[in-house]
Amino acid sequence: MDSITMETLLLRHLSTKMAQDIMRTLIRVTFGTEASQLSALYFLAFSNGTHGLLSQFSSSLNGARELRIKGGAQQIALELSVKIGKECIILNTPVTEIEQSENGVRVSTRFGKIYRSKYIIVALPPTEVHRILFNPSLSLKHRQLLQRYPVGHLTKFIITYPKAFWREKGFSGEVLSYGGGKVERGCDAGPISATYDATTHHGHPAIVGYMASKSGVQWNSKDTSCRKQSVLETLSYFWGDWVHDPIDYVEKNWGEEAYVGGCPTHGMSPGMMVWFHQIRTPFGRIYWAGTETATRWCGYMDGAVQAGERAALEVLYKFQPQTLTAADLDVIDLQVRRSSFIHPPPDPHIFRWTLCLPLFLIAMGWAAYTLRRHFWVIGVGRIA
Amino acid sequence: MDSITMETLLLRHLSTKMAQDIMRTLIRVTFGTEASQLSALYFLAFSNGTHGLLSQFSSSLNGARELRIKGGAQQIALELSVKIGKECIILNTPVTEIEQSENGVRVSTRFGKIYRSKYIIVALPPTEVHRILFNPSLSLKHRQLLQRYPVGHLTKFIITYPKAFWREKGFSGEVLSYGGGKVERGCDAGPISATYDATTHHGHPAIVGYMASKSGVQWNSKDTSCRKQSVLETLSYFWGDWVHDPIDYVEKNWGEEAYVGGCPTHGMSPGMMVWFHQIRTPFGRIYWAGTETATRWCGYMDGAVQAGERAALEVLYKFQPQTLTAADLDVIDLQVRRSSFIHPPPDPHIFRWTLCLPLFLIAMGWAAYTLRRHFWVIGVGRIA
């Protein structure tokens, strides 16, 4: 199953073009990737981690898009930074190199600063891990995997309106489109892959949508006003002319961020699933977090939390195993408990005793010899 | 065709398992990659560039392995370094960042040294290009492509013998094996994918062979003596007991090289061929060489030469287009002749004349006014 693409699987098992197109669109929105680029087995494993296809794409109960965060997702980062203490967070300092030895880890940054620690948790997307120089090199399996686990592309847009007109007309605000709508030169298809109702908890009406995968990359070469025009025209096919009068139109293209490179998640190329566990297998003193290392809701925020907790427990297991509960130990892979890539330093006790004990005995002997006369006097009395 | 893997194509069009296994082995040896990891269309394009399958795998006339270089392939680099002048070659200086502006290119290295030039030719494997930080970022298409163009894995071994026993027995020295031979724990199959006769031009008899792709990675976790033992036992199945007495056994694992990462070439994952030309499309002042950018014998040394010449001509076209012949111009892509990602600086002449001309006129006016009386005397005579 890992040797075929998701496209092959769709063609083999879905008999109508409409069913195929729906799946292709859902894959585009979920991975920012074409079905033709994705390992079929990876998709199935991914869907298994989200309790099936329906919850993966759904914005209703237990669905991937069920919950939104008051004030936006950045609230999590902001609240965490208060808890951790801003002085403990170093921003704008990209890591270029991670070296490890028997004693610890040494992290070099782009601007020459160096940090040291006993252990390190790397919570980066796989493509960014691949860009760091590791010394010693990561295992061959891990490096082969990182090369075949690329990130997709997604441009997100949010259109705000004075009123939620779509609700008044009886629409949910959800649109799935396989390239329908207004096409520009250089683009194979219309811009929109999907939209959702994104009305805020304050009640400000908004529509959020995605320009995903190849089509998104093509539209990326157009200027914003052209994209906006085409997005609105496409939406007007579905909802009518009112869409042309938004309050605001905002876009975010994650592909432009130098240290992110894409959105929303990574999708495995075919042929690597046999070594997929490498993504979270500790390498000496290096432990792995980040949503791509999760086993449940991998690629989502839920997965990021799971992975972060697991990685923290793994490191805690090395420091203070006695603090871990049985439930904690279950979270940690058995492999982790056994793993020790960096051989433990030779036991210092042996050295200490082989050197100190003879020295101590010699010192005692010398002291006994020197104080012999004195002892004699005090302890036994001297025979004159 | 780009949406299916080579494995899917083999299963679809080859009816016997033996034919499939032969193709799988040939793909392993050529790309260091499994058929399941490779885009079928990429494989066909690759084979088109090598004039078909037969020449791709063959060591006879016009074949990929027809020619060898006296004294080894490093002779090319050594001879070139003499021609170029060793003082012009900077070694052990990995590039970390390439910035370009309207005036030129700025290359930063790992140890803080900085180099500047008008244009730059990058002749690196795609995975290593991906590890460099570009400012401005490479085009989205190019970055998406680099992520899906991974390098394979190959461990090469050379066994030297006192005599070419295999020739005496009537063997060519060529073996293709789909995982036959002695298997160790942790390895799915035997070590050898292929061997060839590698007798030197001095007549020193030798066999060269490959442990390729997944199987090669698995064998990589064993120690050398274990691998050697298993390689020799596997070869003895084919050739008899004499193989157990070699003069020497040497290995090279390119996966261990921090700035190479694999061997022998890159193989495209499915779904990206539509943007394959991005690999050689200049980006402002950055031009691309390296065998993966070649259109003929891509992935081979022949391709590296073609790509190098093309890139050199492209840069020459920017400097001194009048020196290029019609044949040279044909080598350069039309796209290159038109490309100008970095907009030309605003014409300095406009600025110069809008400022200088009025100033010049004012100065002339003032001079005329001042010298009015003098002119009058000399030129016309003064009316007293």
TrEMBL record, chains A, B:
Catalytically driven reaction(s): a secondary aliphatic amine + O2 + H2O = a primary amine + an aldehyde + H2O2
GO MF term list: monoamine oxidase activity; primary methylamine oxidase activity
A Pfam family hit: Amino_oxidase
UniProt KW keywords: FAD, Flavoprotein, Membrane, Oxidoreductase, Transmembrane, Transmembrane helix
Lineage: superkingdom: Eukaryota
Compartments in which it is found: Mitochondrion outer membrane
Record EC number: 1.4.3.-
Protein name: Amine oxidase
Species of the source: Zootermopsis nevadensis (Dampwood termite)
